[in-house]
């Protein structure tokens, strides 16, 4: 494995400060979010790519902690089918790293015309998306040069945690303030672990993997699977472990390992541990990310997770996965900064 530091690795290391700036800027706006959301009862998330995986976290967060129904939008209803819906009582939250993806801007405009209140989550201050929203939660990640989103993704999660607090989430804001230092600790802990290079070497010998989590960790599983595909060019299937057990578990074997992600606490942790045992019982390798000692002991190998409450754990949980992907891409001879066929801003219709 080359020792050359990639831009992606440098930006992974910038996340503690990016999170500190973002949380510091957005946490004082909780009351503003609450005022905008007054009278709404449902949250509609509009996103694509990594931002869509952030939206999955947002959905589970507002449903499990704020007691509001959260749904993921199908932008084609607005942009292709051009069908108006009654969105009165809806808070539409559009998420885009650049704020320049035309489909996302158009869908947020459509939501407003249909009666929704609107919020943007973007790293692009002054971007078309920020200008289109009633409230713009602008993250402070700084410029991100590597194509795979790292610090823009985790700061999006921070913005969504603040959004949930504005919607009345049953959660302690002090937990969010702990995140930057914990992410810094986790980067150092992961890189010092003997498990990271060992997992990289073993994954370099396979054609694909299954990545699974559930509940608040599900978005992390989807994001890790996306990163493996886009930076390492391996087949990676991101699934809730409930869906995995309904049939796709058959693809897990001695040539297709499973990556399992979980917070160190919460109602989905026992099921993740049980899945790890089942995977190993079938003769396959199970790699854990997070999940405390319980998941680590059930897995073939494991990377540490953040010492954070479940509701903010995904802000740290993706970080060992980012480090794994960056190292694996270099081990496979790929440039993690510029995956083939991808650009920083993707336009869709």
TrEMBL record:
Protein name from the UniProt record: Glucosamine--fructose-6-phosphate aminotransferase (Isomerizing)
Gene3D superfamilies: Glucose-6-phosphate isomerase like protein, domain 1
PANTHER family: AMINOTRANSFERASE-RELATED, GLUCOSAMINE--FRUCTOSE-6-PHOSPHATE AMINOTRANSFERASE, ISOMERIZING
EC numbers on record: 2.6.1.16
Source species, domain of life: Bacteria
Cross-referenced Pfam families: SIS
Keyword field: Aminotransferase, Repeat, Transferase
GO process terms (BP): carbohydrate derivative metabolic process
InterPro entries in alphabetical order: GlmS/AgaS_SIS, GlmS/FrlB_SIS, SIS_dom, SIS_dom_sf
Ranges in a coiled coil: none
Any one Gene Ontology molecular-function term assigned to this protein's record: carbohydrate derivative binding
Record carries keyword Transferase: yes
């Amino acid at each position: 494995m080359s020792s050359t530091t990639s831009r992606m690795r440098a930006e992974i290391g910038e996340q503690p400060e990016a999170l500190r700036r973002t949380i510091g800027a957005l946490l004082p706006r909780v009351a503003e979010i609450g005022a905008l959301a007054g009278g709404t009862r449902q949250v509609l998330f509009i996103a694509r790519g990594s931002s869509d995986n952030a939206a999955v976290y947002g959905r589970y967060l507002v449903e499990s902690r704020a007691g509001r129904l959260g749904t993921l939008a199908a932008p084609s209803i607005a942009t292709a089918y051009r069908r108006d819906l009654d969105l009165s009582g809806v808070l539409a939250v559009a998420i885009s790293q650049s704020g320049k993806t035309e489909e996302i801007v158009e869908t947020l405009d459509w939501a407003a015309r249909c009666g929704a209140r609107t919020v943007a989550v973007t790293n692009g201050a002054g971007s078309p998306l920020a200008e289109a929203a009633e409230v713009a939660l602008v993250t402070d990640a700084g410029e991100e040069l590597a194509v795979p989103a790292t610090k823009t993704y985790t700061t999006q999660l921070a913005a969504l945690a603040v959004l949930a607090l504005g919607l009345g989430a049953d959660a302690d804001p002090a937990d969010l303030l702990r995140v930057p230092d914990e992410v810094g600790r986790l980067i150092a802990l992961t890189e010092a672990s003997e498990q990271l290079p060992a997992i990289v070497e073993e994954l370099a010998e396979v054609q694909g993997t299954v990545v699974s989590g559930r509940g608040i960790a599900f978005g992390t599983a989807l994001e890790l699977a996306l990163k493996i595909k886009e930076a390492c060019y391996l087949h990676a299937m991101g699934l809730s472990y409930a869906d995995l057990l309904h049939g796709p578990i058959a693809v897990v074997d001695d040539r297709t390992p499973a990556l399992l992600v979980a917070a160190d606490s919460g109602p989905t942790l026992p099921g993740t541990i049980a899945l790890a045992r089942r995977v190993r019982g079938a003769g396959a390798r199970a790699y854990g990310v997070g999940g405390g000692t319980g998941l680590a002991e059930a897995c073939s190998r494991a990377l540490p997770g953040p010492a954070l409450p479940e509701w903010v754990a995904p802000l740290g949980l993706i970080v060992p996965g980012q480090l794994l992907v960056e190292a694996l891409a270099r081990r496979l001879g790929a440039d993690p900064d510029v995956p083939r066929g991808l650009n920083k801003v993707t336009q869709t219709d």
